[in-house]
Known about the structure:
The protein is elongated and about 70 Å long. The strands form 3 sheets. A 3-stranded mixed beta sheet has the order 4-3-5, covered by helices on one side. Helix content is 28%, strand content 18%. It has helices at 2-18, 71-77, 131-135, 142-154, 172-181, and strands spanning 24-30, 37-43, 49-55, 61-65, 101-104, 124-125, 182-183.
Amino acid sequence: MYAAVAAALLLVGARAIRGEGATETSFAAASGGGGGGGSISISGSGGDLVVDVTGAVRDPGVYRMPAGSRVNDAVTRAGGAAPGALLEAINLAARLADGQQVVVPKRVPDGAAAIGVGVEEGPISLGTATVEQLEEIEGIGPVTAGDIIEFRDEHGGLSSVDQLDQVPGIGPATMESLRDRLQP
């Protein structure tokens, strides 16, 4: 009987490692010779997500979150916003996706939010860029700038400028302009 239970556990363990099993598997084992029966139930994590929370949070790191979690849940799991965090620059209500990186931007050193006044020196932060700042980039108009902000908010921030190639209306030439003018 113990050999059958051990074999069943090994099979379930191998399936769990490969991610093929159901979220819960039960086995029943009966013993002969007056010993009664037993049952073993093993629960898996099902639809958990793994996300990387970085930037202006108290405890940045990689976290396992339940399916359906929001960006706000990930920030809370990472210890909450650190002093100087610019939470209004990210969509805290966006749903998390497996493998997503949530970047919480910081306020600029003078304590104000980064707002497009005049010409910026250096690249603009994707996490805090406004529609007006994005419109200053060659090939970006108001519609595309709005689409970029919407894409950023839906994905809880962006970890790379290259992610913007998923935004409709951004072609290879525009991507080159974006790489020169934006930073994650």
